[in-house]
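The authors assume throughout that readers already know how a fold can be written as C-alpha cells. For illustration, here is how one protein appears when written out as sequence plus C-alpha cells.
>
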Amino acid sequence: MDFLSALRISASGLAAERTRVNLAASNLANAESTRGPDGQPYRRLDPVLEAVPFGAELSQAGEPGEAAPLGVRVARVQQDAGPGKRVFSPSHPDADAQGYVTLPNVNPVHEVVNLLSASRAYDANAAAVDTLKTMAQRALDIAR
C-alpha cells in the first residue's frame, strides 16, 4: 500500500469519527429537550458506519489474494427507537393529562462513553497521518 492510499484511509476514519463526536455532543446537548420541531421529545441519533473499498486500481495494486484497502464512511444517521424516560412533573409545560413528561431517550453516561471512544479513535487516525507524514519526509530525505 502506498502513502496516499494509507492517507486516504486515515482521512476517511477522521471524517467518520468527527461525525460520531458531533452526534454524541448533539445528543448530550438535547438530553433534556422535551419538545422538538415535530412536538415530540428529542430522539438520540447514532451514525451507521460502513466499510468502503477504494477504487478498482487500488484493489488490484497489492499482491494476489491480498484484501483491498478499505476506508469507512457514515452510511446514514438513524434515530434510536427506544422509549424515552417518563418523569412525574405536573407543573412542566409538556406534561400530559396524568402529569408525566416524556424525556429524551438519551443516557448521558452512554453518550460520554461514545464521545471518549470517538475521540480516541480520532486521535489514533491523526497519529497515523502524522506517522505517514514522517515516513514520507524520511523517504524524501533518503532520496536526496
Summary: The CA atoms of residues 29 and 136 lie 41 Å apart. Helices lie at 3-29, 56-59, 108-143. The mean pLDDT is 88.
